[in-house]
Design a protein that fits this description.
The chain is mostly helical. The protein is built from 3 helices and 2 strands, in the order αααββ. A hairpin with a 2-residue loop joins strand 1 and strand 2. The radius of gyration is 29 Å and the shape is elongated.
């Protein structure tokens, strides 16, 4: 990895509107270099992780689509309006 130059530190400080004393430039350079090295390590580790293309997989049974009669379900609802269930308010409006 390339080192962060003194000019780059001053440019970053200027863009960030940070007044950086002369004696802190080298310390800041070291700290930023450490952060970038750590970020590079995290990227390397993340590249090695293999993610499953599928999420929410049910391992206990096969997912089966079963046809349902929407009208029958709506007649069993305690209250409905225009084919929608009426749900009681659970949060107070202030």
């Amino acid at each position: 990895m390339t080192q962060i130059s003194r000019e780059e530190i001053l440019k970053i400080a200027g863009l960030s509107k940070i007044e950086l004393p002369e004696n802190e430039i080298d310390v800041m350079s070291k700290q930023l270099q450490d952060v970038l090295t750590y970020a590079h390590c995290v990227c390397d580790i993340a590249a090695e992780i293999i993610l499953s293309p599928q999420k929410n997989i049910n391992v206990f049974r096969e997912d089966v689509i079963s046809p349902n009669d929407a009208q029958l379900i709506m007649t069993q609802a305690p209250e409905s309006v225009q084919n929608y269930f009426v749900v009681p308010i659970v949060l107070e409006v202030r």
